[in-house]
From TrEMBL:
One example of a Gene Ontology biological process annotation: regulation of DNA-templated transcription
SUPFAM superfamilies found in the cross-reference section: CheY-like (SSF52172)
Name of this chain's protein: Two component response regulator
Domain of life, source organism: Bacteria
Domain annotation Response regulatory: ranges: 2-116
DNA-binding region: 124-222
GO CC list: cytosol; protein-DNA complex
Species annotation: Legionella brunensis
Record-linked Pfam families: Response_reg, Trans_reg_C
A GO MF label: transcription cis-regulatory region binding
OmpR/PhoB-type domain: residues covered: 124-222
Length: 223
């Protein structure tokens, strides 16, 4: 599941993103309202966590534009304004939920999960290619009838590759989206992770799915 965090305080935004990434979400952060609208026009998100006080374009205006562009996209408002009028305004404008700052991350996580349960699933719970299947809800992976024992990072990596099957993923892209770090060409962390994942997914008696594109990165596809 992919989330957009719209929060002008970079430290807070990064804290929220890191928390969601640890729970196998893919969270992106932007720091002003205009950037949020641009990001939403480029990428399909499952939930938006939207602060009210934003530069360039405030949260209320962003919410209005979201409702014009994507009427069914769940939006959770964040605000230090704890008065009833502000909460009512947000909900009447189309926010699905409204959380007061300061907040507990565990409460934010629970509220986002609740929104996802209420949302019609445009994104599949099951991802598959050939006889490889990932169940994102149960957090399980199978190759045919064989269960795969994956670490949290391996599951996140395989989810990314399945969601973007047929697309060559660079080491930089993998590092940023799975490890939330900038790729260092002096480290082989990505290559080692792919090697270990390939050993679990591609056995001698199965169709090879994980392929190396020399000088570019890796791709998951049937050849």
């Amino acid at each position: 599941m992919r989330l957009l965090i719209v929060e002008d305080q970079k430290r807070t935004a990064d804290f929220i993103c890191k928390g969601f990434n640890e729970y196998q979400f893919q969270a992106d952060a932007v720091y002003d309202g205009a950037e949020a609208i641009y990001q939403l026009s480029e990428i399909n998100y499952d939930v938006v966590v939207l602060d009210v006080m934003l530069p360039i374009m405030d949260g209320w205006t962003v919410l209005e534009k979201i409702r014009e562009l994507k009427p069914d996209l769940p939006v959770l408002m964040l605000s230090a304004c704890d008065d009833v009028d502000s909460r009512v305004r947000g909900l009447e404008m189309g926010a699905y939920d409204y959380l007061i700052k300061p907040f507990s991350f565990n409460e934010l996580l629970a509220r986002v999960k609740s929104l996802l349960r209420r949302k019609p699933h445009d994104n599949p719970i099951l991802l598959s290619i050939d006889d490889l299947t990932l169940d994102l809800q149960k957090h399980t992976a199978k190759r045919g009838e064989r269960k795969l024992t994956l670490t949290a990072k391996e599951f996140k990596l395989l989810t990314l590759m399945l969601r973007r099957s047929g697309e060559v993923l660079s080491r930089t892209s993998i590092a940023e989206q799975v490890w939330d770090i900038h790729f260092d060409s002096n480290t082989n962390i990505i290559d080692v992770a792919i090697k270990r994942l390939r050993e679990k997914v591609d056995t001698a008696d199965s169709t090879k799915l994980i392929h190396t594109v020399r000088g570019v990165g890796y791709v998951l596809e049937v050849r």
